[in-house]
Amino acid sequence: LARRALLLRPRRDSAAPPLPLLVLLHGLGETGNERAGLEAWSRRYGLIAAYERLSRPPVGRILNHPRYLTDTHLTAINEELAQRPFAGMALVCPVTPNVYKHRSTSRALDRYADWLGTVLLPAVRAACPIAEGRDHLAIDGCSLGGFIALEVMKRRPEQFGTLGMVQGA
Fold it and tell me: pTM of the prediction?
């Protein structure tokens, strides 16, 4: 179902504490091309730019229309960042399969959840100091990735402490 993932992590000195980890699953539009899947969050969805903005407050608007980010919400974000600066995290963006192309969607979801838990996460921990415990591990997905993130969370609730979705299918 999947073989590769892109690991994004901040440059830190070796004495820095371990990082929380966020697993990010891309949408259906990128399932047909492995490279597009690997780079969906970092390039197409704007993850790196958003990460950099949080790392260097104050955050400003990138779109002029306040409907997307009201003045009140922008002020609240910057006040929170002033009180509790963004400490960074590791991000892993695995190729997300189109589980609907498999004979059994349920079986494909089982296999993908197992791969995440038994292959991908141990590999990430070997490559990067990741904080232990489910409170430091989250899963998120966009569109089809949101549906799969929910299904992975249902199958491995002991592993992930937080679930998020953007435009969850």
Answer: 0.92
